[in-house]
Amino acid sequence: MEFGLKLKEGDKMTAGYADFGDGKLYYEIEGNGETLVLIHAGFVDSRMWDEQWKAFTQHYRVLRFDMLGFGKSDPVTGPVSRRQDLYRLLQELGIEHARILGCSLGGETAIDFTLEHPELVRSLIVVSAAPGGFEMRGEPPALLLEMLQALEQGDLARVSDLQIRLWVDGSFRQPEQVDSRVRQRATEMNRIPVENGTWAIDDANPLSPLAPPAAGRLGDISIPVLVMAGALDNPEILRAADLLANEIEGAEKVIIPDTAHLPNMEKPAEFNRIVLGFLSRL
């Protein structure tokens, strides 16, 4: 593995690339103290944490990165293991243990990583995520079916629009009811994985999924856990939050009102207060 590190002038942030051989992964680190790892959702990139960065780096050494196929990282050329990429990154950066916060796909990755490497994880925060093996109930959202159809037709602009409708707006709002700045920022990030074909190439068929899947192993997690979700997210995400909170002994659950899949972007001050409060009690 090769690294290209650079220290940005005027601040304390170190940014670089990790080359795993199957693509270069972009990451940033800033702050001192215990390491807090931020893992982004599967339709945006590490910029989703911009409103958390200053608040969290005042208390922790914070690491965020773009998964392969997202942001500044290389596109994926085939299925990858998200949890294995996280493991390789932590090992090469010499991080022996961390507190991990993941949203959506990032939350699923964080759960899998915790089950596979419990000795490396001090605490876990899962946002808007379902564990691997979680069986969705009912009919899939109509917008999801439209998105898959647009993907088959190669209508990438429509794919991106529908992904924003699905996840940023959520199941119970129209676009005009959502902060336009949040939608615009998410759209800018979303265009990259859509153009890269990330979901179709990798995340619809991930490499070496955790076996047995996490949904049946949640009771094995014995570290402090905080489960978060937005009240306006898809009801199945809220049901997954209930499962996580019920199956993991001692887990705390917080539902943030008037937000959907990205509560940290919609209500950053409230989100930051909840996360830092949870971490400060550990």
From TrEMBL:
GO molecular function, one term: hydrolase activity
Pfam families named in the record: Abhydrolase_1
Keyword terms, alphabetized: Hydrolase
Signal sequence extent: none
Official protein name in the record: Hydrolase
Family annotation (SUPFAM superfamilies): alpha/beta-Hydrolases (SSF53474)
Domain AB hydrolase-1: 35-268
Species of the source: Methanosarcina acetivorans (strain ATCC 35395 / DSM 2834 / JCM 12185 / C2A)
